[in-house]
Amino acid sequence: MNTGLQSQRQSHGQSQGQKIDLAWQKYMAVLQLSVANNLAYMGEVVFRAMLLLAFIFIFLQLWTATYAARGVHSLAGFSISDMIWYLAATRYREWDISQRRHFTIR
Known about the structure:
Layout: H1 4-12, H2 16-40, H3 42-70, H4 80-102
Helix pairs in contact: 3-4
């Protein structure tokens, strides 16, 4: 098992290119693990994506009615497009955080 000290000792003999290559290998390993994890739970991924689309559709209808009732194209400086992006980003972030909590080893 490599400890942090052993890793530091080994890295002193490596060139800058080798260090960058090693860093990319680590990132690729994390990416592969993430993809494998999502593919293992494909039903959940599809369900969450459909739920996100439903939320976006519902809020789009609400915001469209609100903006139309007020007769404006923006409220507090936010257009409907801005509101949709905000909703999508916050819902995705919430999903991402819940996934991390779910896979935390206790």
